[in-house]
Amino acid sequence: MWFSGYIILERCWTKDEHTLKAGFQDLKDFPRPFWLALFPEGTRFTQAKLEAAQDYAASAGLPVPKNVLIPRTKGFVMAVHQLRSFVPAIYNITVAIPKAEPTPTMLRMLRGRSSVVHVHIERHLMQDLPETGSDISQWCKDVFVEKDALLEQHLTIGSFADKEFHESGRTKKSLVVVLTLSCLIFYGAVKLFERFPFSWKEAAFCLVFFVIVVILMQILILASQSECSMPLVKEPKRDRLQQSLLPK
To answer: CB under 8 Å to 225, separation ≥6 — which residues?
Structure first.
């Protein structure tokens, strides 16, 4: 939900605040266990966006990131406030691809080629997070500073250093699922050809159509790296009297 909704959240906060609060509270009575994924960056990572985040951080006196964007914390703060009473923990997840390994792509998955991905997970109890909105916001920003250092370390040595390591290969269960689905798809294709026999021209047309769909999917994935997300705006400085009178 946050890939498309977070930018709107920043632009129309007053308008959407009530709706978001209601949505969070509806999760309290959700009949099954759930995971709520939050992406405080609010957009996909690109080099241009990283450079914009670095410029903003330098002008605002913040730690300059090398591998992450600066988080936009309004949605995260609201989520913590609304979910604190019934969500036990937050998992801070960092994903990295070793330099010596190929980057996972849609084409690699369609070709059945595996990829190596390192995932670092930290568990934070919700009750251990700060209480006030400003402190929660700073906690999130500090987490991203640590995440940036962790990624820089991974970029240098190719791993998350002395962190506990668990190898997660292909399980027998996943193999059974893949084989079962493959057999069902193959059986369905055979029955389809038996009922509606195709000529060679029609089969060639289907193959070309499939290739075009794959290419279009790849183009759409690349196009989704939009550079048009809302830029961060530096907050004006307030004197001590204003800081003591105005709400944070």
So the answer is: 44, 46
Check residue 129 and give its pLDDT.
Answer: 95
The encoded tokens of residue 19 equal 């709706």
Q: What is the pTM of this model?
A: 0.69
Sign of CA dihedral 9, 13, 18, 21: positive
Burial of 72 (0-12, 13-18, 19+ CB in 10 A): buried
Distance separating the N- and C-terminal Cα atoms of the chain:
26
Please state, in angstroms and rounded to a whole number, the distance separating the CA atoms of residues 163 and 96.
Answer: 14
In sequence order, which residues have a C-beta less than 8 Å from that of residue 128 and are 6 or more positions away? Answer: none
pLDDT, tens digit, 9 for 90 and up, residues 202-219: 778 888 998 898 788 778
From CA 216, how far away is CA 218, in angstroms rounded? 5
Between CA 153 and CA 33 the distance in angstroms is: 34
Where on the phi/psi map is residue 112: left (φ > 0), alpha (ψ -120 to 50), or beta?
A: left
- Find, among 77, 85, 91, the residue nearest to 29 by Cα: 85
CB 118 within 8 A of CB 81: no
Q: Which residues of the chain have pLDDT under 70?
A: 1-15, 106, 162-165, 168-170, 222-248
Q: How many separate helices (H) and strands (E) can be counted in the chain?
A: 9, 2
Encoded tokens for 190: 């055979």
Domain boundaries, the chain: 13-157, 172-226
Is residue 42 within 8 A of residue 6, CB to CB? The reply is: yes
Measured CA angle at 118 (ends 112, 121), to 5 deg: 130
